[in-house]
Amino acid sequence: MTVKRPTLAQMREMANRFGMSLSDAELLEYSQIIEPYMQAYDRLDAMPDNLPEVRYPRSPGHFPAPSENPLNAWYVKTEVRGAPDGPLRGKRIALKDTICLAGVPMMNGSSIMEGYTPEIDATIVTRLLDAGAVIAGKAHCENFCLSGGSHTNAKGPVHNPWKHGYMAGGSSSGSAVLVATGEVDMAIAGDQGGSIRLPASCCGVYGMKATHGLVPYTGAMPIEQTIDHLGPVTRTVADNALLLEVLAGEDGLDPRQYKPRTYRYTDALGRGAQGLRIGVLKEGFAHPNSESDVDQKVLQAAERFRELGARVEDVSIPEHHMAMDAWTAITLEGLQDGMMWGHSTGSNYRGLFLPSMTDHMAQWRNRADELSHSLKACMFVGEHFQTQYRGRFYGKGQNLMRRANERYLAALQNFDVLLMPTMPVKPQEIPPADCSISLYVQRAFEMVANTAPFNGGLPAMSLPCGLIEGLPIGMMLVGPHYGEMKIYQAAHAFEQSGDWRTG
Fold first, then answer.
1. Sign of CA dihedral 450, 452, 453, 456
2. How far is it, in rounded angstroms, from Cα 62 to Cα 97?
3. CA distance 500 to 417
């Protein structure tokens, strides 16, 4: 097999992009010089891709009709049975449709990826099946995951299970809906700016974004390596802790992982809140768009912790707002560099690459009009700052995110967890299909002010703490690196103290 050689015109085009002034004779000479390298690519092209083995039999499943998918939460229904026994024996689990399930279609919410079928199982899929789970199918997510609302999927909006016509949260919208409605026992979600926690908040379920790198991201479609997370969404804290036990740990294929520390998270259950130190983060409340009833509902939940014997005190971390700005630069420039121009993979890291995904994603260059308004807005910002400012703000964002983490960790020397609203607002109405671009984009990003800052690496969990106007409200608990045990201890104590639906 041979790969295409660059034509003289292509060599000229590349030279112009590089800012080089070369004659045709010089370009032809360079073509001869690089021929041995081209032959290396010929040999690479003839070799297998060295991908993980797929072990459990499955069928491609089916696309459910509207009658069996009233909230538009499913993309594909299937049934992949794992080991006959294990800690998840018989548990039905839905996967966010960013996660590779070999032989089953995957579209990541976008018409660009529609028609793609991966040939591997993500690491966490193998772990779920080895633990006895049944993969029930793929859950709809937002268009390339670029929305905290649930209105951007190419197949239409995903509806809130508590109130039709309202946001289910994004980007893991379908995952949370399927858990909340009981169609599955558990689900896997992804999170780059709140996409586990926001839908958990909107749908009244539990969503854990663990410490960055604790759960391997191998085999899931990324946005930006330093903020990519996968994690559990469940109806109970106990199920959440159990599922994280199965998911967590190094796989040797994900460069996001750096010797993660794992624990038996179910051991945190039943320890109660007595003596827990809870810091109510001042900057997590009263955002410019915060709704006062949401803030009050979460403050009432904080008071319940005090009644349970926890020490509850206010804490101020002004860098919380700075972390949001740092996340903006990291995410928008990083996604443009890696997800878009890098066709979902990028370069400069060791890890599992899926060439078939790269090839399919590359179609976006000829079909860019099909991208969602929210992704287009992000691309304009990312491209501008990458080209006009040479990526300096991406680097500055990473530096300042470390500074923000230092401040969070300094506060967590005095507290076990920090507490704040998951979202500053209640779930909003899904905008009409013919709404303005401005409203579409506003509804995609108006709720991330508290979630996004913790994609700098710290673990954070959303747990339901009450209802307002018939819609769930989430409270977020944040801990230090690998501090999931204290988060689960606090979350379980709160869950067991009373029915959040009547709180």
1. positive
2. 14
3. 20
The stretches of 416-456 forming alpha helices (DSSP H) are 437-445
User: Given phi > 0 = left and psi -120 to 50 = alpha, else beta, which region is 458?
Assistant: beta
**CB count in 10 Å sphere of residue 453:** 29
Cβ pair 451, 231 in contact under 8 A: no
**What is the distance between the alpha carbons of residues 27 and 22, in angstroms, rounded to a whole number?**
6
Dihedrals φ, ψ of 446, to 5°?
A: -75, -5
**Residues with active-site annotation:** 96, 171, 195
Q: What are the CA-CA distances from residue 452 to residues 93, 209, 231, 375 (Å)?
A: 26, 11, 15, 16
Q: What is the pLDDT along the chain (503 residues), one digit of tens a residue?
A: 689 999 999 999 999 999 999 999 999 999 999 999 999 999 999 999 999 999 999 999 999 999 999 999 999 999 999 999 999 999 999 999 999 999 999 999 999 999 999 999 999 999 999 999 999 999 999 999 999 999 999 999 999 999 999 999 999 999 999 999 999 999 999 999 999 999 999 999 999 999 999 999 999 999 999 999 999 999 999 999 999 999 999 999 999 999 999 999 999 999 999 999 999 999 999 999 999 999 999 999 999 999 999 999 999 999 999 999 999 999 999 999 999 999 998 899 899 999 999 999 999 999 999 999 999 999 999 999 999 999 999 999 999 999 999 999 999 999 999 999 999 999 999 999 999 999 999 999 999 999 999 999 999 999 999 999 999 999 999 999 999 999 999 999 999 999 999 96
By the 8 A CB rule, do 231 and 244 touch? yes
Domains and CATH numbers, the chain: 8-46 (no CATH), 66-502 (3.90.1300.10)
